[in-house]
Write a structure and sequence with these properties.
The complex is a heterodimer of chains A (about 220) and B (about 220).
Chain A lengths: L7 H39 L2 H15 L3 H14 L6 H27 L2 H9 L4 H16 L1 H14 L11 H12 L2 H33 L1
Helix pairs in contact in A: 1-2, 1-4, 1-7, 1-8, 1-9, 3-4, 4-6, 4-7, 5-6, 7-9, 8-9
Chain B lengths: L2 H40 L4 H16 L2 H11 L9 H27 L2 H9 L4 H31 L11 H12 L2 H32 L1
Helix pairs in contact in B: 1-2, 1-4, 1-7, 1-8, 2-4, 3-4, 4-6, 5-6, 6-8, 7-8
Classes of the chains: A mainly alpha (about 220), B mainly alpha (about 220).
Chain lengths: ~220, ~220
């Protein structure tokens, strides 16, 4: 059975629709992982022990286990405790939490790296502890850590292929559907790889651009 | 929490953990080989090799490892490559992780001060002698820790072969979640086993790193 790429045009719209979902899930999970990462970092650094401890146990567990295993836990776990979320939501939550833990590690270092005088000055000016964090410390910490966070988001795009396993109709699963009716796995997986690669290149270009802007604004 | 069930299924998870370990070891060896070849290509004098090395790194890091596995395992037979799931898993993941290791190794070699190479060449060493006797020994020390990070990611990425039905830890967990409807218990068993494997490897890397720093 040789190669025959002529079957692709007929299924191109299904695959491209899948690509749209891949982009949607990547953006959704990126937002969850960004704000989740900040929240986890602030909890790890400032929350009282009783709140901190369970979150750190969660982070520890999520840093040491594969994403695929976590997706199974979240998808089937939510169903088990009676929350019936659509696969798409489970995918966004699973991917988002996984990368929130990684982002949190980055945010923690960068929050600690913000000059102490900044927080002291804010407190002296009468800002509360919460206001100081929200308006002075975190914004500076976020700016410093954008390049590595951006790399995590590019990794997130590629890991979004895994949510096909829990039945989210994104790029990978749409290719599997097309393969189901054409029996042409090589052609469609290569097509899908090419689409991922293009999205990846675009994200890298955007990140390089943003990095340059940050350099200038300093 | 259903402890009795956990006890009953534990032996099956333990067996699967050995498959995960075997996969990790074979993948790491293949990844290192690909990484060394990739690094040699990227640092080569010949523009064609440099281009091939850069293309390898860019393509394999720029697309999902899962898709690479699928192309090899499901698409392979169409171009005359017949592999069973385990072989496809090792080769697919090994070549993928090799691309990441290429960047790690290249980074360490570039990080060695330029003056070192210049001094070695001035003393009459050939390019290869300078690399082998002067640059590599220093670069090796720099690359142990980041290679450890690659290794950690590799162990977790072996879970992907569950998608092509290799019976390792994640596949086993998935199967038992499906048959017992106890996702948390199964996650916990598999998760703890993964963390033990990762912890042991982490200790090994830290020891190697410390030893490299003393000498």
């Amino acid at each position: 059975m040789g190669l025959d790429f002529s079957v692709i045009p007929k299924y191109l719209d299904i695959v491209l629709l899948g690509a749209v979902w891949t982009i949607a899930i990547t953006i959704g999970a990126a937002v969850v992982s960004f704000f989740g990462g900040i929240l986890l970092a602030v909890i790890a650094l400032y929350a009282p022990k009783i709140i901190r401890w369970p979150f750190q146990a969660f982070s520890f567990l999520f840093l040491g286990t594969p994403l695929l295993l976590q997706l199974f836990l979240i998808y089937f776990g939510l169903v088990q405790i009676g929350i019936d979320v659509p696969a798409f939501m489970a995918g966004v939550i699973g991917l988002g939490l996984h990368f929130a833990v990684y982002n949190s590690e980055l945010f923690q270092t960068s929050i600690l790296a913000v000059d102490k005088g900044q927080a002291e000055a804010a407190r002296t000016l009468g800002l509360s502890r919460m206001q100081t964090l929200r308006k002075v410390v975190v914004p500076q910490a976020v700016r410093d850590v954008i390049p590595p966070i951006g790399n995590n988001m590019i990794a997130l795009l590629k890991d979004s292929a895994l949510v096909s396993v829990i039945g989210v109709s994104e790029l990978t699963l749409s290719a599997q559907r097309a393969i189901g009716s054409t029996y042409r796995p090589f052609e469609f997986y290569v097509l899908v790889a090419a689409i991922y690669y293009i999205i990846n290149l675009v994200m890298e270009a955007v990140l390089r651009h943003v990095e340059r802007r940050i350099q200038v604004s300093r | 929490m259903d402890y009795e069930l956990m006890q009953r299924v534990f032996p099956f998870f333990l067996e699967a953990a050995w498959i995960t370990i075997l996969l990790s070891v074979l993948t790491a060896v293949l990844g290192l080989i690909c990484g060394i070849l990739g690094t040699a290509a990227r640092l080569s004098r010949f523009v064609v090799l440099r281009f091939l090395g850069a293309a390898y790194v860019s393509l394999f890091r720029g697309t999902p490892a899962l898709i690479q596995l699928f192309i090899l395992y499901f698409g392979g037979p169409q171009i005359g490559i017949q592999l069973d799931a385990f072989e496809a898993g090792v080769i697919g993941l090994g070549v993928n992780v090799g691309a990441y290791m290429t960047e790690t190794m290249r980074g360490a070699i570039i990080a060695v001060d330029k003056g070192q190479a210049e001094a070695a060449r001035t003393l009459g060493m050939s390019r290869w002698q300078a690399m082998r006797n002067v640059i590599l020994p220093q670069a090796m020390r720099l690359m142990i820790r980041p290679l450890g990070v690659n290794l950690n990611a590799l162990i977790k990425s072996t879970a992907l072969v569950a998608a092509i039905s290799v019976v390792e830890l994640t596949y086993t967990a998935q199967r038992y979640i499906g048959s017992t409807y106890k996702p948390f218990e199964m996650f916990l068993i598999a998760g703890v086993l993964y963390m033990i494997i990762i912890y042991i490897v982490g200790v090994g890397v830290a020891l190697a790193d410390r030893k490299a720093r003393i000498t």
